[in-house]
């Protein structure tokens, strides 16, 4: 079955454990969190979307794409190594436009799910480290959003809903509780997470009338590409469950759009 549209996912790296205070990349042999989300988006019985995976490490990206294609028959998965700098993201989106398997597909959902972690006593934090953290994460979200919006309007036009323009697509940011409140020694982390939350809110207010659905998802608790005892007993989220939620968000019509939601396994304290 030919893909019905295009999904872009940045942050398709190793499994991330998302906690109320910090997220930590686990560079082990554990599965990729991005794999579960991409698998749902690409699977013919779920999203049936071609998926463009973006992350810094080209070898891990290639491995992830190979695994996904072996698990999902006829999946269209393409990889684009990039960091969050404007020039790098601009090139990645240009490569997506030129890719022969993707160029004729219209963007439906774009997901910013990038790692952001920083913990340091405040007086040991340097101005350079603090501002670099904000530039890499908030600046990356800014650049990714601009590229996404340009591609959505390129694919769907910019006519407003009131004039019959219809929905253009969905832009989702994966956040954490750090966007709402933070702790001692997490100044850069809290500033970054809350900054992206405010970016999402501003974009929603500016572009909803033009048919762009913007979502900020607060993910609290472990997300793993697994369906084991921890998932069944509500101790950890499965990446596929997150993927199904993101797909559901992307399918919402203008009559009702969720802007912010809290994702957590049943046993997570709150």
Walkthrough of the structure:
- The chain is α/β, with parallel strands linked by helices and 270 residues long.
- It is 39% helix and 20% strand.
- It has helices at 33-42, 58-71, 86-98, 127-156, 187-207, 229-232, 239-250, and strands spanning 6-10, 16-18, 23-25, 50-55, 77-81, 107-112, 169-175, 212-219, 221-224, 237-238, 260-263.
- α6 links the parallel β9 and β10 (237-238).
- The protein starts with 5 loop residues before the first strand and ends in a 7-residue tail after the last strand.
Task: Identify the notable features of this structure and list them briefly.
alpha/beta, 270 residues, 20% strand
Q: Which secondary structure elements does this structure contain, and how are they paired or packed?
A:
Elements: E1 6-10, E2 16-18, E3 23-25, H1 33-42, E4 50-55, H2 58-71, E5 77-81, H3 86-98, E6 107-112, H4 127-156, E7 169-175, H5 187-207, E8 212-219, E9 221-224, H6 229-232, E10 237-238, H7 239-250, E11 260-263
Helix pairs in contact: 1-2, 1-7, 3-4, 4-5
Name the poorly predicted regions.
14-31
- The largest sheet has its strands arranged as 5-4-1-6-7-8-11
Identify the overall geometry.
globular
H-E string: EEEHEHEHEHEHEEHEHE
Q: In percent, how helical is the residue content? A: 25-40%
Radius of gyration: 18 Å
Total helix count?
A: 7
Number of beta strands: 11
Q: Which structural class fits the helix and strand makeup?
A: alpha/beta
Strand content: 15-25%
Largest sheet: 7 strands, parallel
Instruction: Tell me the span between the first and last alpha carbons.
Output: 42 Å
Mean pLDDT over the residues: 90
């Amino acid at each position: 079955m030919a893909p019905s549209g295009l999904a872009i996912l940045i942050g398709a790296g190793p499994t991330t454990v998302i906690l109320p205070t910090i997220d930590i990349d686990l560079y082990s042999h554990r599965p990729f969190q991005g794999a579960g989300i991409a698998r749902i988006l690409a699977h013919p019985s779920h999203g049936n979307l071609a998926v463009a995976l973006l992350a810094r490490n080209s070898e891990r990206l290639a491995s992830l794409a190979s695994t996904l294609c072996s698990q999902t028959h006829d999946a269209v998965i393409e990889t684009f190594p990039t960091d969050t700098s404007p020039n790098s993201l601009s090139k990645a989106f240009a490569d997506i436009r030129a890719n022969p398997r993707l160029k004729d597909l219209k963007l439906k959902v774009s997901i910013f799910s990038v790692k952001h972690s920083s913990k340091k006593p405040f007086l040991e934090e340097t101005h350079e480290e603090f501002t670099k953290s904000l530039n890499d994460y908030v600046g990356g979200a800014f650049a990714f959003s601009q590229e996404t919006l340009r591609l959505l309007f390129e694919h769907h036009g910019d006519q407003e809903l009131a004039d019959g323009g219809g929905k253009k697509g969905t832009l989702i940011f994966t956040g954490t509780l750090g966007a709402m409140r933070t702790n001692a020694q997490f100044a850069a982390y809290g500033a970054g997470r809350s900054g992206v939350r405010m970016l999402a809110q501003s974009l929603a207010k500016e572009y909803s009338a033009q048919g762009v659905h913007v979502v900020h998802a607060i993910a609290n608790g472990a997300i793993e590409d697994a369906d084991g005892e921890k998932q069944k007993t509500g101790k950890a989220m499965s990446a596929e469950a997150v993927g199904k939620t993101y797909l559901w968000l992307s399918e919402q019509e203008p009559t009702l759009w969720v802007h912010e939601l809290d994702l957590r396994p049943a046993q997570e304290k709150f």
